[in-house]
Specification:
Helix 11 runs antiparallel to helix 12. The N and C termini lie far apart (58 Å). This protein is 49% helix and 14% strand. The longest helix has 30 residues. It is an alpha/beta fold. Helix 5 links the parallel strand 5 and strand 6.
Length: 296
């Protein structure tokens, strides 16, 4: 097999569009589909074929890459694509889905003769656009040469976690990593909210922790989005973060672990979404600290 592939990307939101663009720039043939076609159309400038249906999109694909909202959305779209799916096609499932969904999607893959790769990614808009995601992947060694060029196009590194995509080992790692990301995001927002309430200049807080073990680049990046009112366009939206937070809490409950911080974080994100911040960057969970929009 040559190093070029025909790659179908189902779902061209913030992450999917960036991934599709980088796959095309790497020289692969890209066929893209999105529920809202207008979100996929700009990819035509990068040489992608914009399909009208999931079935049209997967015709002749070597690799199908799914980057949709959740597991239910993936299953719905793949069922619509089923009449045109070719047995033996590699399926890189990159949507952050719950553990139950991974098992369900893997069963669908087996039913249709697809080679299933559990392949979520770590990163947000900026690294996705730069092709610098971290790909977490699980799936059979035999056949990895089919998906590796695609993973190389969207990320700087691939961490393989197992041979069986159905076991969801890559998704398990993604949920653990996201639990830390979301906790840090919520903590940054709460620290800024408390600073405002107490009349503390946030810069004094940053100066106090500068260069020490409590300092971190992520805190400064997310705080900057809040302080400079740069929450749109989002690097990763509140609504999607809230969904991921629910999946993390559910995973903990399923395995007998109390995740008090994750549960509280999920509530904060849901509250921020209900306040109208769902399409802003997840740093907008900051607003969940207030009953009303805080004054500047």
């Amino acid at each position: 097999m040559t190093d070029t592939r025909t790659v179908t990307v189902l779902g061209t939101g913030i992450m999917g569009a960036a991934m599709a663009r980088n796959v095309a720039r790497a020289g692969h043939t890209v066929r893209a589909w999105n529920r809202s076609r207008d979100k996929a159309e700009p990819l035509s400038a990068d040489g992608a074929h914009i399909a009208g249906t999931p079935a049209e999109a997967v015709e002749g694909a070597d690799v199908v890459l799914t980057m949709l909202y959740d597991g239910a959305a993936v299953l719905d779209v793949m069922r619509r694509a089923a009449p045109a799916l070719r047995p033996g096609t590699a399926w890189a499932q990159s949507t952050t889905a719950g553990l139950d969904s991974v098992a369900e999607l893997a069963a669908f893959a087996e039913e249709h003769g697809l080679v299933f790769y559990d392949a979520p990614v770590l990163g947000t808009r900026q690294p996705a656009e730069a092709g610098q995601l971290l790909v977490l992947a699980a799936g059979p060694s035999r056949g990895r040469e089919t998906v590796t060029p695609v993973f190389d196009a969207v990320g700087t590194r691939t961490v393989w976690t197992g041979e069986d995509g159905a076991a969801g080992t890559a998704t398990r790692l993604k949920l653990v990593a996201n639990s830390w990301v979301l906790a840090a995001t919520n903590a940054a927002g709460e620290a800024l909210a408390l600073a405002q309430a107490l009349g503390v200049d946030p810069q004094n807080f940053f100066d106090a922790i500068a260069g020490g073990p409590l300092d971190m680049g992520y805190l400064r990046v997310k705080s900057g989005l809040i302080l400079d009112d740069r929450l749109s366009p989002p690097q990763f939206a509140v609504a999607t973060a809230a969904k991921d937070a629910r999946l993390i809490v559910e995973a903990g409950e399923r395995h007998g672990v109390r995740l008090d911080v994750a549960a509280a974080g999920a509530q904060r994100l849901a509250r921020a979404a209900a306040q109208g911040h769902g399409h802003e960057d997840m740093a907008a969970a900051y607003f969940a600290s207030f009953d009303e929009t805080p004054s500047a």
